[in-house]
Amino acid sequence: MKMLSIIFRNAFRHKLRSFLTIVGIATAVMAFGLLRTVVGAWNTGVANSAENRMIVRNRVSFIFPLPMTNRAEILRVPGVSDATWANWFGGQYGDVNDFKNFWPRYAIDPDTWFQVYPEFEVPADQLKAFQADRSGAILGAKTAAKHNFKIGDVITMNGDIFPGTWQFTVRGIYHGKEPSTDETAMFFQWNYLYESLKQSSPGRDLGAGWFVLKIDRPDDMAKVATLVDTMYTNSRAPTKTESEKAFQQGFVAMSGAIITSLEVISFVIIGIILLVLANTIVMAVRERTREYAVLKTLGFTGRHVLMFILGEAMIIGMFGGVLGVLLTFPIVKGFASMPMAFFPLNGVSLGTVVLALIVAGLCGLAAAAVPAFRAARMPIVSGLRTVG
Question: Does residue 10 have a pLDDT over 80?
């Protein structure tokens, strides 16, 4: 207990310097935790992919549609229990330069979409009202709350992929079955898009942007993919069928450079923690070299000196780590309330908290290792001659 008391007192002998060091470490740990949370959120779509869903898209490019007749043919493939489809709509709401006005918008089949995606929970009466209204829409709870949209509100948008002025009536608000389920999307009837384009652009072939298949057994995915793609090998729209997880990973891979940059930066922050803490420890050891020599003359060993220095670094590092972790939660919560539709943040994971604390502790040991061993091995006479 006396050893711990000495270590603790030494750690806070220079209160201002210790405080500034702890704040510096806490800031770095907070940034580390935020970046790790963002990287994790970017991969949320992959982690939340259903094991029994597959995506069928145009093999040439995702932007090319597939014939609607494909659905009936795909449903006859052994192992496929249901199939729905969707198109990316895009569109512009309000000020196009304000990113908070963006959220994902999809034209879907109202009768099958929510059967294939049970994680999007819509009250039965709202779903029925949506299915009965050609221009109806269902919004995610986060988007509805952010823009204060309510049931019955009319949302006006300007089309970009599909030109024109579009009006959607909010008929329902969905919530995620799990905390990590995306609640930012908007769904509206594919028939509304089809019928409107038929009038405004009669020569334009809409088709389905992609099909989503519900599979009886996940083990049959490879067989189903082969059967579906073989059917359309020589068609005007050859297909690529893959698991939902692989499909999501494809989108994440497009942002691979960004994710890698964030991961590199998060580990650069570890170096910053080391430098901040090492500077404090080196200064403290230099100032107390004669004290350590006196302690040795009183019977303390080099091992005791080593424990004093390493313990001091660990205390400062862990204080900074704990403070940084505590600050990470409100920072992440603040970022989660901002318009981040591509990768919604769902809170700081336990793994991130543990990793941040381990990093702070290990950085404390690493920063103090060299000066601690030097002080422990320094001869008493050399230590007494040292002027700090």
Answer: no
Instruction: State pTM to two decimals.
Output: 0.69
pLDDT of residue 134: 93
DSSP string, 149-197: --TT-EEEEEETTTTEEEEEEEEEEEEESSTTS----EEEEHHHHHHHH
Cα 210 to chain centroid, rounded: 25
- Under 8 Å between Cβ of 325 and 22: no
What is the Cβ-side half-sphere exposure of residue 179, based on CA atoms within 13 angstroms?
7
- The one-character DSSP state at 63 is T
Rounded Cα–Cα distance for residues 375 and 288 (Å): 9
Domain boundaries, the chain: 2-44+256-385, 60-237
**Above 90 in pLDDT, residue 127?**
yes
b/e map 62-80, b = 16+ CB within 10 Å: beebbebebbeebeebebb
Rounded CA-CA distance 188/107 in Å is 5
| Mean pLDDT score of the chain | 84
Report whether 177 contacts 121 (CB < 8 A).
Answer: yes
Would you give the distance in Å from CA 309 to the centre of its chain?
A: 38
Q: % helix / strand / coil in the chain, to the nearest 5?
A: 55, 15, 30
Q: Is the pLDDT of residue 126 over 80?
A: yes
Q: What kind and span of H or E run contains 326?
A: helix 302-336
Distances (CA, A) of 375 to 70, 178, 281: 76, 54, 12
pLDDT at 251: 63
Size (the chain), residues:
388
Instruction: Give the C-alpha separation, 137 to 105, whole Å.
Output: 10
- CA dihedral sign, ordered 119, 123, 124, 126: negative
Q: Predicted confidence band at 257 (pLDDT cuts at 50, 70, 90)?
A: low
Residues forming beta bridges with residue 156, ordered by sequence position: 167
Buried-exposed string 100-129: b where 16+ CB fall within 10 A, e elsewhere: eebbbbbbbbbebbbebbeebebeeebbeb
Q: Is the Cβ–Cβ distance between 293 and 380 less than 8 Å?
A: yes
C-beta of residue 116 within 8 angstroms of C-beta of residue 84: yes
